[in-house]
């Protein structure tokens, strides 16, 4: 793992953990089955105009019924690990109260199936599908406590078999993009005082979750989170721009990852928010800063930064209309993001272990005559990004593994089914899964443990 010398200039460390990632609402379907409760995304996706072409997760990839096929896909790829998320409302239909055994049974079947196939389950507890029974959603501090209770319950039930638990996925997405800019459920555009409070409830939920998991888990359980800090890349790889990159990383993520890894809010963040700064209770920051066993990063897009004579000491260079990007408008191409994401997090906060919990791309490649998708552009994207991750392993950064987003085409939130990230094509009429060219490429990468 960390720092192990590579066999040659293109190899990954021998025990590097290759995986694929998915999330409950994006793949499961079965939204009314076995007592699952309603979530914010059920409501949002059924509200006209909120998702592209009115897409919903009602059926999605039907993994609630086809999880055995998903495990077969994973086996055929040769991955060692699978990152999936638990639908909170299958376990506690209204977010708290009496647990629903049938919901838990589904995840037990999935976990046992993965283990039988020799695949490590890496479980995320919250990937945005919030039970609507939790009135007020993330606006309510109570939601953070409900999350802690749910996290502790799950840890008690699964840590005999699940050794890696992530509390939440992508703080910025379920706070800012949901309550400030409003593209994601529940689609609100609130004033900053409320947004900052929601951010605080998000990081507090994570901290309460960590504590509850530690209290309930078997020995040997590793706890972390999957976050998507804004990733910075030095405009030029010189000491001054590298220093500016670290500053930007810390400052621009002050309300999320910096708060979690330092157990405090930076003065600069609190000062900038002024009267809109979050209201805290005694002990909150200690909970938020609960020590972690690993940090997982979802990395897609770079932001180039230069040292500058500004108050902060840096300037973030804007993305341009013709900057290279993939099928999703926000997905700018910058393979260096994978290296610099790992390096800045490692240099700033020295976590014991780092994982890439998501990386991948949308692409528009059509189904060819022979029924296969030849997504050479996705292969190009992955090969380039992984070249830079391999550099991080070579230089001894504690990067343990990589989860490709995503195992298969799925419900891409407000983009519905118009932006597809899978390395397996899913025919959403028949639900048949077919490996794309990128799946063949990933299988070969895993087999050789070497860039191909
Ligand atoms: C992540 N952005 O979302 C999520 O964790 C996945 O559920 C999702 O399917 C995947 O990436 C692809 O989108 C993001 O605007 C959504 O920068 C938007 C952004 C980043 C990540």
Overview of the molecule:
This protein has 452 residues and is of the alpha/beta class. The protein is built from 16 helices and 13 strands. Helix 15 links the parallel strand 10 and strand 11. Strands 1-2-3-4-5-7-10-11 form an eight-stranded parallel barrel, surrounded by five helices. Strands 6-8-9 form a three-stranded mixed β-sheet. The protein has a two-stranded antiparallel ribbon with strand order 12-13. Helices cover 38% and strands 14% of the residues. It binds 4-nitrophenyl beta-D-glucopyranoside. Keywords: Carbohydrate metabolism, Cellulose degradation, Glycosidase, Hydrolase, Polysaccharide degradation. GO terms for molecular function: beta-glucosidase activity. Pfam families: Glyco_hydro_1 (PF00232).
Give me a quick take on this structure.
This protein has 452 residues and is an alpha/beta fold.
By DSSP, the count of extended strands is 13
Distance between the termini: 21 Å
Q: Segments where pLDDT lies below 50 for 5+ residues?
A: 1-6
The number of helices is: 16
Strand order of the largest sheet: 1-2-3-4-5-7-10-11
Derived from helix and strand composition plus strand pairing, the structural class reads: alpha/beta
Percent of residues in helices = 25-40%
Shape: globular
- Spatial extent as radius of gyration: 21 Å
Main sheet attributes: strand count, strand direction, barrel closure: 8 strands, parallel, barrel
Enzyme class: hydrolase
Catalytic activity: Hydrolysis of terminal, non-reducing beta-D-glucosyl residues with release of beta-D-glucose
Keywords: Carbohydrate metabolism, Cellulose degradation, Glycosidase, Hydrolase, Polysaccharide degradation
Pfam families: Glyco_hydro_1
């Amino acid at each position: 793992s960390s720092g192990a010398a590579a066999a040659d200039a293109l190899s990954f460390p021998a025990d590097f953990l290759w995986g694929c990632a998915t999330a409950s609402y994006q793949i499961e379907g079965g939204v009314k089955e076995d007592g699952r409760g309603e979530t914010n995304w059920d409501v949002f996706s059924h509200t006209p105009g909120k998702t592209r072409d009115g897409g919903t997760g009602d059926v999605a990839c039907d993994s609630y019924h086809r999880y055995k096929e998903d495990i077969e896909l994973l086996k055929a790829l040769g991955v060692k690990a699978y990152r999936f998320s638990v639908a909170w409302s299958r376990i506690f239909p209204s977010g708290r109260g009496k647990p629903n055994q049938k919901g838990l049974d589904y995840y037990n079947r999935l976990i046992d199936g993965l283990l039988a196939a020799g695949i490590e389950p890496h479980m995320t507890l919250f990937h945005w599908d919030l039970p609507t029974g939790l009135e007020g959603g993330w606006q309510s501090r109570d939601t953070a406590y409900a999350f802690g209770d749910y996290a502790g319950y799950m840890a008690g039930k699964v840590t005999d078999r699940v050794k890696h638990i992530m509390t939440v996925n992508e703080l910025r997405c379920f706070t800012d993009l949901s309550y400030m800019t409003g593209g994601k459920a529940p689609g609100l555009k609130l004033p900053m005082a409320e947004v900052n409070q929601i951010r605080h409830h998000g990081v507090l939920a994570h901290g309460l979750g960590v504590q509850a998991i530690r209290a309930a888990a078997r020995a040997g359980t590793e706890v972390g989170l999957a976050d998507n800090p804004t990733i910075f890349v030095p405009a030029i790889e010189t000491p001054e721009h590298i220093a500016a990159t670290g500053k930007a990383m810390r400052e621009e993520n002050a309300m999320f990852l910096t708060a979690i890894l330092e157990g405090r809010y930076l003065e600069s963040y609190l000062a900038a928010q002024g009267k809109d700064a979050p209201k805290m209770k005694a002990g909150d920051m200690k909970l938020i800063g609960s020590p972690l066993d690993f940090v997982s990063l979802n990395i897609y897009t770079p932001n180039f930064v230069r040292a500058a004579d500004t108050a902060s000491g840096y300037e973030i260079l804007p993305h341009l209309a013709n900057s290279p990007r993939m099928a999703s408008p926000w997905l700018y191409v910058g393979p260096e993001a994978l290296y610099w994401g790992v390096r800045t997090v490692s240099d700033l906060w020295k976590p014991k272990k780092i994982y890439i919990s998501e990386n991948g791309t949308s692409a528009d490649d059509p189904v060819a005559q022979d029924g296969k998708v030849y997504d050479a552009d996705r292969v190009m994207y992955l090969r380039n990004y992984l070249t830079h991750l391999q550099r991080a392993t070579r230089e001894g950064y504690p990067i343990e593994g990589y989860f490709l987003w995503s195992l298969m085409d799925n419900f891409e939130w407000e983009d519905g089914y118009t932006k597809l990230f899978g390395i397996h094509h899913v025919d959403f009429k028949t639900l048949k899964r077919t490996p794309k060219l990128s799946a063949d490429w990933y299988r070969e990468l895993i087999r050789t443990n070497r860039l191909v």
